[in-house]
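ZP: hey, is the pantoate complex queued? I don't see it on the tracker
AM: it wasn't, my bad. submitting now with these inputs:
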Amino acid sequence: MIGTPSRQADEVELVPTIAELRVRLDAERAAGRSVGFVPTMGYLHDGHASLMRAAAAANDVVVSSIFVNPLQFAADEDLEDYPRDLDRDRALAAASGVHLLFVPDVAEMYPRGPVDTVVAVPPLAERWEGATRPTHFSGVATVVTKLFSIVGACRAYFGEKDFQQLSIIRRMVADLSIPVEVVGCPIIREADGLAMSSRNSYLTTEQRAAAPVLRRALDTAVAAIGAGEADGVAVTRLMADLIDAEPLAELDYAAVVDPDTLEPIEVIEGEVRLLLAAQVGRPRLIDNAGATMGTPMGALDEEDHR
Ligand code: PAF
């Protein structure tokens, strides 16, 4: 039995190998205990902490992974520079109820070098983020499938901040009958509305001040739909115009989509998802919100756990 949530960083056990993690988690399940899993790439923030707390509230044992997965970075992306701080991450994981921290190195995860087996989920992965980062989601789907295979039956927690990633993982789990219950958790924001992300650390002071424009654009679009605007193209334009008006932000896409298929919606009826991506200096920022026809601000209020 692993025990109650730890508070000291050194009470979170670091597990570097697949074999050891499997033995530990198989023993927990054999003893009738449930496993909650929070996969991450580290450099943890309150968004990750909220996933860990949700896992700790609903499961007997919480395992989190920290692995900066080379497969999901294109050659010109920030794999080498991706921020890392294991001591800080271990303390945050401890304070958030994690028992085991799986910290494999690249050789442990990919001992034969580049993998021959790839998991891909077109057409969900081809649009939006996938249009700019064509190899990203197959890298995510492949490593998450591998992590699920290592961790075994569990509940796995993902943030809605990466809404397209969450949709792809849900679909992959359903299609491949993976024995994992996927739990989506609300976006966690800074006080001024910027969605938390490890890559926000790349923003300069001026860019950081400009970055909440994404949240303001979403707020405006949610309010418009709440007030009865049913034209998907008009709502898209509303968001795009607000981003375009911010000199430090360069719009990649603004979209009103079906929350399940992620297909663009022309006539808004019922529930939709609003998606945004913009380059603000070095990082590409993404954000999203749910909106419901005729429901003023409801979806954003529910998600806003500042
Ligand atoms: O969202 C992330 O941090 C990563 O994409 C994930 C799910 C840990 C896979 O590397």
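AM: back. Confidence is low (pLDDT under 50) at residues 299-306.
ZP: great, adding it to the tracker
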